Amino acid sequence: MASYSSSSLSRLSTLQNHISPLEANNKLRSLVKISPQVSDAISNGRAVVALESTIISHGMPYPQNLQTAKEVESIVRENGAVPATIAILNGVPCIGLNEEELERLASLGKSVQKTAGRDIPHVVATRANGATTVSATLFFASMVGIQVFVTGGIGGVHRHADHTMDISSDLTALGRTPIAVISAGVKSILDIPKTLEYLETQEVYVAAYKSDEFPAFFTEKSGCKAPSRVDSPEDYANMKLNRKAGILFAVPIPKQHSAAGNRIESATQRALTEAREQNVTGNAETPFLLARVNELTGGTSLAANIALVKNNALIGSQIAVALSQLM
């Protein structure tokens, strides 16, 4: 059983009550470290794009993860926004990482705890290192007023969830956090139709970018009609995020990387079977599946993953800039 000091318990209590009243939110903000660049951009109403850190620590090997993280941040800057990679380092939530912090996170890799929203109090209280998932990144981004968040793909309803009840907290976090999430849809290892149904229940607005079909991460098409379509960042920005729930903006993978989709889907089916045979469940399942699919495809899936994340960063930055011009 973990033991906490009195000061750690105080920090844990504060974070466990992460509710919306202004006083509580101000206390929470005093517990995070915001980089000077991100703080200045937020204060002056400039475009900021939140980035998760699980993709760095658990999504790919070192040093490829570090190189990709730097390239994604560069794309955000080149398109007029400020990147805010979010992670917890030595128990301190950091919003915007410098080069040294990015290097440290990347080199530590999977020894860093994969941190969803529910895990934040424990990671902070024990002064551990945490790589934020979609749900945790949404929490911290919302706390400081960031309106746009770019990721690869969100979590969702797992296949066979009718038996396992395995549904990602990303979906409920989206339902209560008014932030625009730009992704390549839902990870293809999941049950996409059920995920879309669950998002509707959570009142999350879902739109596909320049497509009538919802993308399936590694492929442009999932066989599911998108609830709505948006054809430009400006059109999307005009929605003005004045809702209690978030918005999922699904961007299809670039065409040149979508061709390998059938091969990746075949590998996904095999990896899912292996996961069931090895009893891999919970938050260990997604990293296992993505790593196994990458092995089975000879690195093709990883290359596609990197390409779609960069494309999402491009579109997400354009949305953040368009939003900032409306304010």
Automatic annotation (TrEMBL):
Its EC number is 4.2.1.70. Coiled coil: none annotated. It holds the Pfam family Indigoidine_A. Homotrimer. The keyword Membrane does not apply. It comes from the Eukaryota. This is Pseudouridine-5'-phosphate glycosidase. GO terms for cellular component: cytoplasm. HAMAP family: PsiMP_glycosidase (MF_01876). One of its GO terms (molecular function) is pseudouridylate synthase activity.
